[in-house]
Design a protein that fits this description.
287 residues, 72% helix, mainly alpha, ABC transporter involved in vitamin B12 uptake, BtuC
């Protein structure tokens, strides 16, 4: 039971990390209709930038947790305004190809700047060590990740359900033409949502780095799982993304522990099964 308890905490922390990362992807797709295949690269950049900050004269994890998402937000702004905005009239295929190409550009830039070695980001001293809960020992950092993920989930829910900006986003999920007709600056909405998605990806990269490490190709590995979560939860659904993230996080963790030979297969099998039963995903509203 002790081992299963630890795996449960590991699965929840991993699932909530996936939620933080994938929620940005879900927002961008739901509001903008853009399947951003460079989203995993923004996650990767957050991790690498955090590594650079913590290994500089500042050497502060908390500074990295603030600065890295901000820098990723700046990169997201440049990508959306300078590149994506020119493709909106060309259709979704152009945007997919553009972001796919950007993913490889960022991949090569990361190799050039940080090399190809596997890097690590140390857990901050205040969150190191373990605590005993119900006579079981759990790493403090993983419990903190669970708390952070839940807080972000609540914040996203409040923004989406209780604010004017959330009402605009909900309207954008169902009818972009309508919000344009009401006088809403759709360009500003698109840019803001894309930046916010980048911030979530960069933040997830910093938080995940002490657990998952920093290594070449990490962006593609994460992107694949994020797409699985996106499809299972339902395209554009934040609530569906939350449920799917927890599901995949627990499935990945327990399958690696109990059925390691099937661990790579099971998430895709679950995705296929759910799509057979619910073609739009668990809570999807986008056809």
């Amino acid at each position: 039971m002790d081992i299963l308890g630890v795996q449960l905490v590991n699965g929840l922390s991993y699932g909530l990390l996936l939620f933080v990362i994938t929620s940005g992807l879900a927002l961008v797709f739901g509001v903008m209709g853009v399947l951003n295949l460079a989203h995993g690269s923004l996650y990767m950049l957050g991790a690498y930038i955090a590594f650079t900050i913590t290994n500089s004269a500042f050497s502060n994890f908390w500074l990295a947790l603030i600065a890295a998402p901000i820098l990723v937000a700046v990169i997201s702004l440049i990508v959306e305004v300078g590149l994506l905005r020119t493709t909106y009239h060309l259709g979704h295929l152009s945007q997919v190809l553009l972001t796919f190409g950007l993913a490889y550009v960022f991949h090569d830039l990361a190799h050039w700047i940080w090399g190809t070695n596997v890097l690590s980001l140390a857990v901050p001293a205040s969150l190191s060590g373990s605590v005993s809960v119900f006579n079981q020992t759990f790493p403090v950092y993983r419990l903190a990740v669970i708390a952070i993920g839940l807080i972000i989930a609540v914040i996203l829910w409040v923004i989406q359900e209780k604010t004017r900006w959330g009402a605009i986003i909900r309207a954008g999920l169902s009818d972009k033409e309508m919000i344009s007709g009401l006088g809403v600056n759709i360009k500003l909405v698109f840019t803001s949502v894309f930046i916010f998605g980048g911030v979530l990806a960069g933040f997830g990269g910093v938080v995940a780095a002490p657990i998952l490490g920093i290594f070449p190709g990490m962006e593609f590995q994460t992107l694949i799982l994020a797409l699985v979560v996106l499809v299972i939860g339902g395209l554009g659904s934040i609530a569906g993304t939350f449920i799917a993230s927890i599901l995949i996080g627990l499935l990945e963790t327990f399958s690696r522990f109990l059925l390691p030979e099937l661990s790579l297969f099971l998430p895709f099998a679950v995705m296929a099964l759910i799509l057979v039963v619910k073609p739009k995903g668990l809570l999807g509203k986008v056809a």
